[in-house]
Amino acid sequence: xxxxxxxxxxxxxxxxxxxxxxxxxxxxxxxxxxxxxxxxxxxxxxxxxxxxxxxxxxxxxxxxxxxxxxxxxxxxxxxxxxxxxxxxxxxxxxxxxxxxxxxxxxxxxxxxxxxxxxxxxxxxxxxxxxxxxxxxxxxxxxxxxxxxxxxxxxxxxxxxxxxxxxxxxxxxxxxxxxxxxxxxxxxxxxxxxxxxxxxxxxxxxxxxxxxxxxxxxxxxxxxxxxxxxxxxxxxxxxxxxxxxxxxxxxxxxxxxxxxxxxxxxxxxxxxxxxxxxxxxxxxxxxxxxxxxxxxxxxxxxxxxxxxxxxx
Length: 311
Description:
The protein is an alpha/beta fold. The chain has twelve helices and eight strands.
């Protein structure tokens, strides 16, 4: 492959958002090529954007921007896509923030939360690889004690990335594991602790209280921990992501998002709705299983990919 990594990342991102962008693109072309822009066309464009999971408020804002000064005129689909991309970028720009590791916190403790199957453990492995490559000493805590497979998976990532893994038997108390991991990391002068947690549905009270306990116990070792709480969201779940973000933020104080599984089946528009509603920083997006498939979130690239604008 002689592609530059930037290009191949763009190809993966635009490919991952194909489902969203192609449905939006073809509908826009159908709408604007047949008639001048009138109230009915604008309304149809708005409905199309709501169906693409961009959220009611954002859809209304984009439709208004498209209509501005263009009523009863013929507009091109390229013009509409450019406005769509610009408006989406306005929503995403303020939340596109890298994860900043505060060097004064040692270890810097990252708690990773989310529902089952969202890609938490894989995301942790990719983050460990990234931080290790930056020369940081990383400790991984296998806090998903419900699933033996998650513990094993984390151990594999540990050996692959040179990170130390703190794990106990399946069914062990995850809060005491968190305590042990932060204590060990402190003693060894590690830079970062990343703790996995069991996948929990946001409507299961007992699992959510366990999450509260993990946070409480970590604070016994370091009152300022956890320093980052990352919510991993699966982009294929669409609207369900909104309630997940609300509930996990309430319980665990989410500080940032990682959006995974932008792999062609994704409903990428939901990230726009999330940004508009919850205003949580989006740190990373994942477009595949490989280590290099987790990338810092760039608002402009994402907006262009959703609008189906080729680079």
